[in-house]
């Protein structure tokens, strides 16, 4: 495929469009699918963990559970999210899907970025609070922090699942094409 490039002096030229070769595309798709499925699995694990800890009042169990949650965010969820984002961008620029050719591609990007931003903005503070204040399990602030962690875990599962649905069904059709004069 070639891209038509119009210069300011009115000349028109074509240049080959850079695409991933089939083996590279398959490798990037594989890494993208594995990382996103891993991210979804870890997020589903967070739902179970945060719900289980919501009903616990033992301070040692809470400290251990939320410390484990923090480790899983640092070593599993965050790398999986960033790999998913990076490989998604590589696929959008290196395949015919492009980043702004179809509605579902930028929508998926927004879902992934929003999920990462929400986590970066809230998760570290909430997790530190729940680990440090595990002795105050009956306080309204502690219960609120726990509920927010449950809500964030559910939010992750919903957003990542929505991105997966967009990948499978590819709804919305094409964005309007720009015409070269």
User: Mind summarizing the main beta sheet?
Assistant: 2 strands, antiparallel
Instruction: Please estimate the helix content.
Output: over 70%
Q: Give the number of DSSP strands.
A: 2
Sequence of strands across the biggest β-sheet: 1-2
Gyration radius from CA atoms, angstroms: 21 Å
Structural class by sheet pairing and helices: mainly alpha
SSE run? EEHHHH
Terminal Cα span = 19 Å
Oligomerization? single chain
Overall mean pLDDT stands at: 90
- Please count the helical segments: 4
**Residue share in β-strands:** 5-15%
* Shape category: elongated
Written description of the protein model:
This protein is mostly helical. The protein contains 4 helices and 2 strands, in the order ββαααα. It has a two-stranded antiparallel ribbon. Strand 1 and strand 2 (12-16) form a beta hairpin. Helix 1 (22-54) packs antiparallel against helix 2 (59-94). The longest helix is centred in the middle third of the chain and has 36 residues, at 59-94. The chain starts with a strand and ends in a 12-residue tail after the last helix. The mean pLDDT is 90.
List its salient traits.
181 residues, mainly alpha, two-stranded antiparallel sheet, 71% helix, elongated
Question: Could you write a compact summary of the structure shown?
Answer:
This protein is mostly helical and 181 residues long. It has helices at residues 22-54, 59-94, 104-132, 140-169; strands at 2-6, 12-16. It has a two-stranded antiparallel ribbon.
